[in-house]
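FAQ
Q: What does a multi-component entry look like?
A: The components come first, one per line:
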Amino acid sequence: MTEHTDDTDDTIEGHERELSAVREEHDDADDDVSLSLPGLSVDRRDFMKAGAAVGAATASAGCLDALSGGGSADQETASGGAKNHKVAPGELDDYYAFLSGGHSGEIRVMGVPSMRELLRIPVFTPEPASGYGYDDRTSEMLEEEGGGYSWGDTHHPRVSQTDNDYDGRWAFVNDKANGRMARIDLEYFETDAIVDIPNQQGTHGACCLLPDTKYVFGVGEFRVPMQNDGRDLDDPEAYTSTIAAINPETMNVEWEVEVDGNMDNGDGGKDGRWFFTTGYNSEHATTESGMTKADRDWVKAFDVPAIEAAVENGDYEEINGVPVVDGTRESPLNQSDRPVVRYVPTPKSPHGVSVTPDGDYAIASGKLDPTCTVIDVEKLAEADDPADAIVGRPRVGMGPLHTAYDGRGHAYTTLFIDSQVAKWDIEAAVEAEAGSEDPIVEKIDVHYNPGHLIASESYTADPEGDYLISLNKLSKDRFLNVGPLKPENDQLIYIGDDEEGMQLVKDKPSYAEPHDASIVSADKIDPADVYDPSDYDAEFVAEGDESIERIDDSTVHVKTYVKRNEYAFPEIRVQEGDEVRITASNVEETSDITHGMAIPEYDVDLALAPQDTREVTFTADEPGVYWVYCSYFCSALHLEMRSRLIVEPSE
Ligand code: K7E
Ligand code: CUA
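Then the predicted structure of the entire assembly, as tokens:
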């Protein structure tokens, strides 16, 4: 770095400027000069980040490959080309995995195969490190659109697709706790919309209608009175559950369909026609013993164009602002030769359902029954009796919960009770007798009690078929004891070699509680490196645009830029009782230089990534001196990066 010291500015700020000049130079580099300087780890790391940010651009793709050892080439070992699944320090993963965080209310982003946790994206729960829920925009989103709940329970993160392949625009996730759906913008990796779904108490399944994500479906689990205002309290027959079709662009609930029984998980077919849900409680009971009395439940197959036609024809009742189509078994709409919902009988309480990559089958996992039910999607459209569409029932083992695919004709089903993953052959299951174990290819032990599993790109038409993650509920003795609340165990399994069989590669402890995940090839996601100020309504405050303006007797608007190592104003003076609105912009253009703006006594906590603008409004109701400080360690003068909020007493 010494060769760059051609100015004599010896202050710390000077070094800061110099360092960022070096970084920018390397950000702009279009050759791999940093490779010849292995000692300069900062430079090399920054260069690699720059490569990652533009990884989708063809011009630099080869350059990135050269740096990272080619990612996949790096995984070949000297001994016969077997993969070692290692991602060395400083190298990048092949995949993004988006995992739900359960009742932590968040989404987690993990690299695969390294299983390094890269980011947590808060969704339904405020999160101080990212300032989520503390600025005006995100707190309004949680309060107003989001219904003002303090927590949520994310289960099923699904990434948007175009033509049955990931398009990198959005991820969606449900809230099983409060009947909501959220959208995560994958340019910025942040939640940008939440909808509180009317007529649902607990939205469990979530998934996209393929091929082009026409709708995001929220599957209502808990049966409640449709007008839940005190009527029908003791009449469970009058309770109901619905699926909600949400427009992914507007996040508007376009329509709902009311059904018999509870619903559980869901998955969309590949051709825009069918949407499948599992469910339990065909009995319409309110207790466990009542819900498991009958031997049969259903997979419900929603015929989307038929439902859209019903909505078009006015065959619905508007309830709480949403057109609700009657899809119960006795509905007149289900007596025609094109029913809106087909009830496919299965053994009681099936849990997961997922459609095979070719779109030919919907496979429901038995949970209380040791089999999976294979439903032929084409037959479903033609059969008079929906039961005739069932073409296979392999006996996979005890407690089958969820099924994923490798794109080579295999299904992988988690066995909760057996603590195993069963690999089986789908066509063999269609040919075999019901209840046969013949289609089973192999089983692998997992540790312990798996819920979901997910294979690389399993939800698309063309899975990669190399990695699978088993999301195990219990870890027991697999990790150092941390007291009674043990971590879960997400296990990475290599499935890319049918001859060698499944290989357990890694244990990854995780905090409660991942349910489902989506694994997306890294080259299909293209996140921004800094914000684009034109993407937000809030006005960007450039250096020179700062102001402290009294709007009226009791309102003050502060516009401040933020940069190393200062806020625009060393002090902000207001009167006791003033409503203070702060608009703050981080004017840095250097990647990764985030600043905070915290005023703890007033619960102000902004996190400002480069080129970001956030606003916060509060009432200065206590006279005194309040330090404004930076909460991200941004520079050598980070601790000195301060301002004072001075609240003068009213006389
Ligand atoms: Cu099985 Cu909510 Cu997908 Cu959990 S659900 S495991
Ligand atoms: Cu800015 Cu620390």
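Q: Is there any commentary attached?
A: Sometimes. For this entry: The pocket of dinuclear copper ion (ligand 2) is lined by residues 595, 630, 632-634, 638, 641 (CB under 6 Å).
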